[in-house]
Protein backbone atom coordinates (compact mmCIF):
# COMPACT_ATOMS: atom_id res chain seq x y z
CA UNK A 1 0.00 0.00 0.00
CA UNK A 2 1.47 3.32 -1.03
CA UNK A 3 1.61 6.18 1.43
CA UNK A 4 -0.93 8.15 -0.60
CA UNK A 5 -3.35 5.21 -0.72
CA UNK A 6 -2.94 4.71 3.01
CA UNK A 7 -3.63 8.43 3.57
CA UNK A 8 -6.87 8.16 1.57
CA UNK A 9 -7.88 4.98 3.39
CA UNK A 10 -7.15 6.42 6.80
CA UNK A 11 -8.86 9.73 6.10
CA UNK A 12 -12.05 8.33 4.61
CA UNK A 13 -12.50 5.33 6.84
CA UNK A 14 -10.28 5.21 9.89
CA UNK A 15 -10.24 8.64 11.56
CA UNK A 16 -7.09 9.85 9.87
CA UNK A 17 -6.35 13.46 9.05
CA UNK A 18 -5.70 15.47 5.92
CA UNK A 19 -2.63 17.66 5.32
CA UNK A 20 -4.01 20.25 7.77
CA UNK A 21 -4.73 17.70 10.50
CA UNK A 22 -8.50 17.83 9.92
CA UNK A 23 -10.56 14.66 10.17
CA UNK A 24 -13.40 13.74 7.87
CA UNK A 25 -15.83 14.04 10.79
CA UNK A 26 -14.61 17.55 11.50
CA UNK A 27 -14.94 18.65 7.87
CA UNK A 28 -18.35 17.02 7.48
CA UNK A 29 -19.52 19.24 10.34
CA UNK A 30 -18.62 22.47 8.60
CA UNK A 31 -21.44 24.80 7.65
CA UNK A 32 -22.17 25.63 4.02
CA UNK A 33 -20.23 28.90 4.14
CA UNK A 34 -17.12 27.04 5.28
CA UNK A 35 -17.53 24.47 2.51
CA UNK A 36 -17.93 27.23 -0.07
CA UNK A 37 -14.88 29.17 1.06
CA UNK A 38 -12.53 26.23 1.72
CA UNK A 39 -10.91 24.82 -1.39
CA UNK A 40 -8.63 22.04 -0.20
CA UNK A 41 -11.04 19.56 1.42
CA UNK A 42 -12.79 18.20 -1.67
CA UNK A 43 -9.58 16.53 -2.87
CA UNK A 44 -9.59 14.47 0.34
CA UNK A 45 -13.29 13.69 0.28
CA UNK A 46 -13.13 12.68 -3.38
CA UNK A 47 -9.59 11.57 -4.32
CA UNK A 48 -8.55 10.90 -7.92
CA UNK A 49 -5.86 9.07 -9.84
CA UNK A 50 -4.38 12.30 -11.17
CA UNK A 51 -2.83 15.29 -9.41
CA UNK A 52 -4.98 18.22 -8.40
CA UNK A 53 -4.36 21.50 -10.20
CA UNK A 54 -5.45 23.33 -7.05
CA UNK A 55 -3.83 21.47 -4.15
CA UNK A 56 -0.42 19.86 -4.24
CA UNK A 57 -1.37 18.16 -0.96
CA UNK A 58 -4.17 16.17 -2.61
CA UNK A 59 -3.68 12.42 -2.25
CA UNK A 60 -3.79 10.19 -5.34
CA UNK A 61 -4.06 6.49 -5.88
CA UNK A 62 -3.58 4.19 -8.85
CA UNK A 63 -6.54 2.51 -10.49
CA UNK A 64 -5.64 -0.80 -8.83
CA UNK A 65 -5.43 0.96 -5.46
CA UNK A 66 -8.86 2.51 -6.04
CA UNK A 67 -10.23 -0.98 -6.55
CA UNK A 68 -8.86 -1.98 -3.14
CA UNK A 69 -10.16 1.23 -1.54
CA UNK A 70 -13.59 0.71 -3.10
CA UNK A 71 -13.79 -2.72 -1.51
CA UNK A 72 -13.04 -1.37 1.97
CA UNK A 73 -16.42 -0.99 3.68
CA UNK A 74 -15.22 1.79 5.98
CA UNK A 75 -13.86 3.80 3.06
CA UNK A 76 -17.14 3.26 1.18
CA UNK A 77 -19.10 4.57 4.18
CA UNK A 78 -16.79 7.59 4.46
CA UNK A 79 -17.15 8.55 0.80
CA UNK A 80 -20.93 8.08 1.01
CA UNK A 81 -21.03 10.42 4.01
CA UNK A 82 -19.02 12.98 2.03
CA UNK A 83 -21.34 12.58 -0.95
CA UNK A 84 -24.44 13.14 1.20
CA UNK A 85 -22.89 16.25 2.76
CA UNK A 86 -22.02 17.70 -0.64
CA UNK A 87 -25.52 16.95 -1.90
CA UNK A 88 -26.93 18.93 1.04
CA UNK A 89 -24.48 21.72 0.23
CA UNK A 90 -25.94 21.85 -3.29
CA UNK A 91 -29.55 21.71 -2.06
CA UNK A 92 -30.01 18.10 -3.07
CA UNK A 93 -30.54 14.73 -1.42
CA UNK A 94 -30.57 11.08 -2.31
CA UNK A 95 -34.08 9.86 -1.53
CA UNK A 96 -35.08 6.39 -0.33
CA UNK A 97 -35.84 5.22 -3.88
CA UNK A 98 -32.28 6.10 -4.99
CA UNK A 99 -33.09 9.29 -6.90
CA UNK A 100 -31.40 12.62 -6.27
CA UNK A 101 -33.95 15.36 -5.73
CA UNK A 102 -34.08 19.00 -4.70
CA UNK A 103 -34.54 19.75 -1.00
CA UNK A 104 -36.47 22.54 0.69
CA UNK A 105 -33.12 24.41 0.75
CA UNK A 106 -32.82 24.31 -3.04
CA UNK A 107 -33.70 27.96 -3.65
CA UNK A 108 -30.98 29.14 -1.27
CA UNK A 109 -28.32 26.51 -1.98
CA UNK A 110 -28.62 26.52 -5.77
CA UNK A 111 -27.86 30.22 -6.20
CA UNK A 112 -24.11 29.74 -6.12
CA UNK A 113 -23.88 27.02 -8.75
CA UNK A 114 -27.01 25.80 -10.55
CA UNK A 115 -27.62 28.67 -12.97
CA UNK A 116 -24.03 29.48 -13.97
CA UNK A 117 -20.52 28.09 -14.18
CA UNK A 118 -18.56 28.30 -10.91
CA UNK A 119 -15.79 26.38 -9.19
CA UNK A 120 -18.53 24.05 -7.99
CA UNK A 121 -18.70 22.60 -11.51
CA UNK A 122 -15.14 21.36 -10.98
CA UNK A 123 -16.06 19.96 -7.59
CA UNK A 124 -18.94 18.07 -9.17
CA UNK A 125 -16.64 16.65 -11.85
CA UNK A 126 -14.30 15.46 -9.10
CA UNK A 127 -17.19 13.91 -7.17
CA UNK A 128 -18.41 11.99 -10.20
CA UNK A 129 -14.93 10.67 -11.07
CA UNK A 130 -14.08 9.75 -7.51
CA UNK A 131 -17.38 8.04 -6.80
CA UNK A 132 -16.81 5.92 -9.89
CA UNK A 133 -13.24 5.08 -8.87
CA UNK A 134 -14.30 4.18 -5.32
CA UNK A 135 -16.93 1.65 -6.34
CA UNK A 136 -19.86 4.06 -6.11
CA UNK A 137 -20.64 4.12 -9.83
CA UNK A 138 -24.39 3.77 -9.23
CA UNK A 139 -24.35 6.92 -7.09
CA UNK A 140 -22.30 8.70 -9.76
CA UNK A 141 -24.86 7.77 -12.44
CA UNK A 142 -27.76 9.02 -10.32
CA UNK A 143 -25.89 12.26 -9.63
CA UNK A 144 -25.15 12.73 -13.32
CA UNK A 145 -28.84 12.23 -14.19
CA UNK A 146 -29.81 14.87 -11.63
CA UNK A 147 -27.16 17.29 -12.91
CA UNK A 148 -28.30 16.85 -16.51
CA UNK A 149 -31.86 17.71 -15.49
CA UNK A 150 -30.75 20.69 -13.39
CA UNK A 151 -28.58 22.14 -16.16
CA UNK A 152 -31.41 21.76 -18.67
CA UNK A 153 -33.83 23.52 -16.30
CA UNK A 154 -31.57 26.18 -14.77
CA UNK A 155 -28.83 27.14 -17.21
CA UNK A 156 -28.70 28.89 -20.51
CA UNK A 157 -27.30 26.66 -23.25
CA UNK A 158 -24.07 28.70 -23.19
CA UNK A 159 -23.61 27.62 -19.56
CA UNK A 160 -24.11 23.88 -20.22
CA UNK A 161 -20.45 23.09 -21.04
CA UNK A 162 -19.83 21.26 -17.74
CA UNK A 163 -22.24 18.53 -18.86
CA UNK A 164 -19.56 17.25 -21.24
CA UNK A 165 -17.02 16.97 -18.43
CA UNK A 166 -19.55 15.40 -16.08
CA UNK A 167 -20.44 12.78 -18.68
CA UNK A 168 -16.78 12.08 -19.43
CA UNK A 169 -16.15 11.59 -15.70
CA UNK A 170 -18.20 8.40 -15.88
CA UNK A 171 -16.53 6.89 -18.96
Automatic annotation (TrEMBL):
**Source organism of this protein record:** Aquabacterium commune
Domain Opioid growth factor receptor (OGFr) conserved, first and last residues per copy: 33-164
Q: Does the keyword Ligase apply?
A: no
Gene Ontology molecular functions: opioid growth factor receptor activity
- Assigned GO CC terms: membrane
User: Which protein is depicted?
Assistant: Opioid growth factor receptor-like protein
Task: For this UniProt record, give its keywords in alphabetical order, as a comma-separated list.
Answer: Receptor
* Residues in coiled coil: none
